Amino acid sequence: MGRELSLADKCLLLFGAAIVALLTAALATPWVRLRYVIDESLLDTSRQIARLWPGVLETETSLEAFLEPTPAAAVETPPAEG
C-alpha cells in the first residue's frame, strides 16, 4: 500500500521538527517581550502627557510654542592643541 519510512528518515524528520520548534521559540520570545516593553513605554508616555496637559492649558503659551524645541545654548569649543 504505502512505503514505510526508514529509521534514518524518521530521525531526519524529528530533527527537522526540533529545529523548527527551537527557531520558532527563539524568535517568538523576543517578539513577545518587545511588544510588552513598547506597550509599557507608550503607556508611560501617555501618563506623562496627561500629567503635563493641565499645565499647558493654564499657561497662556500656545501648544505650538510648548512643543517647539528650545534653542541650544552656545557651546564654546576648546582651542585645538597644536
What class would the helix/strand composition place it in?
A: mainly alpha
Strand content: under 5%
**Estimated radius of gyration:** 29 Å
Oligomer: single chain
The 3D shape can be described as elongated
What's the end-to-end separation, in Å?
89 Å
Q: Find the count of extended strands (DSSP E, 2+ residues).
A: 0
User: Which parts are unreliable, with pLDDT below 50 for 5 consecutive residues or more?
Assistant: none
**Helix proportion of residues, in percent?**
55-70%
Order of helices and strands: HH
Sketch the major β-sheet: none
Average of per-residue pLDDT values:
81
Q: Given the structure, what is the number of helices? A: 2
Outline the structure in words.
There is one protein chain. This protein has 82 residues and is mainly alpha-helical. The relative contact order is 0.04. The protein contains 2 helices and no strands. It is elongated, with a radius of gyration of 29 Å. It has a domain of 29 residues.
What would a concise description of this structure say?
With 82 residues, this protein is mainly α. It has helices spanning 7-58, 63-67. The chain contains 2 helices and no strands.
How do the strands and helices of this protein lay out in sequence?
Blueprint lengths: L6 H52 L4 H5 L15
List keywords for this structure.
2 helices, 82 residues, elongated, mainly alpha
